[in-house]
């Protein structure tokens, strides 16, 4: 991965250099941003060998940016030690082949520690999960992200925005004080709101990643996105990359042909407020013999009668 580094000028106890040119990372974000699953062994621990194998499958399939510790990776169900392990495994496998964008979050000290670990492990960027708190002030949102971004000035920082009330000018204010805030994973299911938010924050200032995956990618690309996240890519990398190719070419007819192929699979994931988001992906991987279907609470494996529908959907993709 291309990491352009400049001498360190930030007052930190370590000697990590500060990256001044973030353009390579911005280019890396404008892509299919894969959110890998975290496979579990029979005893419930992380299946290290399978994690490596699944990461290599993504890379061999053409994926060039991966987000360990994303929601499809069951971020909130992993322990801090497990999240560090997932980060390290991903960086090791991706070395020289893909950019690593590590998910961090929870309370500020935990998020800062995870971001610093990501930097030490060799990741290039962090994605900051939406703050999990019943009371989120707009300025408090800025403070939360500033604390994380300032701790790792050499890393690109990508806020994950799920709050429809957040104003675009708050993101601009954050980036004014933290130039390493370079992109946004926008996951509010409203293309018009996204288009307005992106323009209020600065359309050309940030890389806009459609954070609701393939079903929303065409409408978000039409209003300013240049990348999209994907959990489906774990199952069928070529399908996701076909959509990206069509969207980059501005061929929305071709993009919607892909959309039609994957529509039911993604609808299964989105049912009941995305209760089966991870479950359906792991079920598909289980059908393919690539990992166990096991998920952690509060997710749950699919009942027997629904598993056949997942198998039927992926059979049509000729994987």
Automatic annotation (TrEMBL):
Gene3D superfamilies listed in its UniProt record: Aldolase class I (3.20.20.70)
DNA repair found in the keyword field: no
UniProtKB keywords: Lyase
One protein family per Pfam: DHDPS
Family: Belongs to the DapA family.
Name of the protein described by the UniProt record: Dihydrodipicolinate synthase family protein
Organism of origin: Streptomyces badius
